[in-house]
Amino acid sequence: MASMHVSFYSDVLKIDCGIEVVYPQNCTRTPPSLRNVIEPPYQVLYLLHGITRDQTAWVRLSSIEQDVMDMGLVVIMPTTQRGQYINQANGYRYSDYLTEELPQILSKMFHISTKREDTFIAGFSMGGYGAFKAALTYPERYACAASLSGALDIGIMYDLSAGVVTKEEVLINFNNKDPRGGEYDLFELAKNGAKSGKTMPKLYVSCGTEDRLHSTNVEFFQAAKDILDVTFYDEPGDHVWNYWDRNIKKVLEWLPIRQRDPNYIQRPNL
Fold it and tell me: How far is residue 26's CA from residue 44's CA, in Å, rounded to a whole number?
């Protein structure tokens, strides 16, 4: 694999932006079964971080590079800082950046597929919310979306506007209004998407049983399981990296990745 940092200018945000990229490399480390088989255009996974992290989190704190070593998959790790991956009511157009501008820029930089069936999005905590928000708002762009310990009830950000999330951020993000019941509400987006007649993305919901967000993850699954294609998984764990590092592997197993070594999970650390 190749791992790189890429900086560029965003016309949407009007600032320089940085992303981390893990990119397939066909080399002598590639298993013989895949050598000269892993070829572009590659499928792509947009992998989002939580509210106190940035685009380097997955590279620094998980084994994502090793996890995708034997796959024809490009992993893109962007950041919207603490911006919830949404178009803020009084701030930056982060959703437009993530779902529209970034794929256009990257498709010119890297040999990645732009087809819906080849495009996936996932994240943890705030990134889990951002992944589902993008996929449910633009189902024509994403085949699959996964949330690990996601803040799937965005009203939590409004109710708990102290400590990790401040009242000032609520004002910026949601114009000082409860975001439930509108364009920011995943429960509403799931319901409206199911009624739309559009082909909706497959969803994967995962949360540790000791995580304070576990109950809202269960509630989202219960609300969506009869109207969308949703997989739910939980196991003992809290809102911590060892849970996300373990469970991103399960997400990768679940994703319909075409070019992969079937024994990649069992490979030794070489």
Answer: 17
Place of tokens 């157009």: 93
248, two tokens: 């991103």
pLDDT: which is higher, 32 or 87: 87
Distance CA 132, CA 151 (A): 10
pTM (2 decimals)? 0.95
Q: Count other C-beta atoms under 10 Å from residue 181's C-beta.
A: 11
Tell the residue number behind the tokens 């998959």, with chain if given. Answer: 73
Please give the single-letter amino acid code of residue 238: D
CA angle, residues 209, 212, 214, in degrees to nearest 5: 45
Return the structure tokens found at 201.
């993305």
What tokens appear for 3 in the block?
């791992």
In the block, tokens 């995580």 appear at: 211
Backbone phi and psi for residue 174, each to the nearest 5 degrees, phi listed first: -125, 15
Closest CA to 197 of 139, 133, 120: 139
For the stretch 156-215, pLDDT in tens is 777 765 567 777 787 788 877 788 898 999 999 999 999 999 999 999 999 999 999 999
Name the residue type at position 1: M
SS3 track for the chain: CEEEEEEEEECCCCEEEEEEEEECCCCCCCCCCCCCCCCCCEEEEEEECCCCCCCCHHHHHCCHHHHCCCECEEEEECCECECCCCECCCCCEHHHHHHHHHHHHHHHHCCECCCHHHEEEEEECHHHHHHHHHHHHCCCCCCEEEEECCCCCCHHHHHCCCCCCCHHHHHHHHCCCCCCCCCCCHHHHHHHHHHHCCCCCEEEEEEECCCCCHHHHHHHHHHHCCCCCEEEEEECCCCCHHHHHHHHHHHHHHCCCCCECCCHHHCCCC
